[in-house]
Amino acid sequence: MITCLDIGGSGIKAAVARSPGQIEVLGRLRTPLDDFEAFVAAIREVLALSPAPDGSAIAIAITGVVDPATGSIKCANIPCIDGRRLATDLSARLRRPVVIGNDADLFALAEAGAGAGQGHAIVFGVILGTGVGGGLVIDGKVVSGPGGYAGEWGHAPVAATRVLEPPVELPRFACGCGQVGCVDTLGGARGLERLHKHFTGQARNSVEIVAAWEAGEAAAGRSIDAFMEIVAPPLVNVVGAGSVPVGGGLGKSHALIARLDREVRARILRRTIAPLVVPAQLDGEPGLVGAAILGGLI
Length: 298
Known about the structure:
Layout: E1 2-7, E2 11-19, E3 22-30, H1 36-47, E4 58-62, E5 65-66, E6 73-74, H2 86-94, E7 98-102, H3 103-114, E8 122-128, E9 132-138, E10 141-143, E11 162-163, E12 168-169, H4 183-187, H5 189-200, H6 206-214, H7 218-231, E13 244-247, H8 254-265, E14 277-279, H9 286-294
Parallel strand pairs: 1-4, 4-7, 8-13, 13-14
Antiparallel strand pairs: 1-2, 2-3, 5-6, 8-9, 9-10, 11-12
Helix pairs in contact: 3-9, 5-7, 6-7
């Protein structure tokens, strides 16, 4: 039995896990962003709710990337932990073992172990949420790479410069990572909204655009066509995944993911009639499930 946390820029979700399939959610607190002692106090508060024994391990899924060589975390969303050796610092203050993984990596680990990726040796978990993220799992293990950034396909540049027929020039937006023209800027929910405004002049949220496309609206369909031309080409050939579960807000549209699957399978070098890009199965708490697996409950 371990305590699992899923920590993002807005909230800390806590659960106790007896196995990846037995996750009891304990509650949620606001994430302190600028005060590390307040951050630690918030974790202590949720630990007080956990029936796990004193001194038992804590497994954390968190936004940001942990450097595998130094243990330091790069986390722009939570300034008070940026640059810290977070697992070491928390373990010292809480007097418990602490393991930490990137939230997208642990989403992929959860889907590989208990979701849509079961039975596949290579699973590439994709997040199409506010932005674009991903995690790579091979033979049940997260692949982080020397810099900890394996699977972060959202921060490669968009290869296309024009889309649709007749061709339309693609805008290049500054990305939060410091680069320009990343897939993240055009591929997530905010990216779809940018595309739609670029093509139509209309400011609509991604839920409305997807719903309008599903209802057959031509303008929304044009935006979705462009979205597919941007997102599908870079998705699969590099890692050769056997399953690509998709989570995040856009992943909730099964019609959108089915379209993305068709677009991807039309482009991969090894053609297959079986679905490859599929909706995530663990649509409840994949971060907590992934944290449980990371913590050794397999």
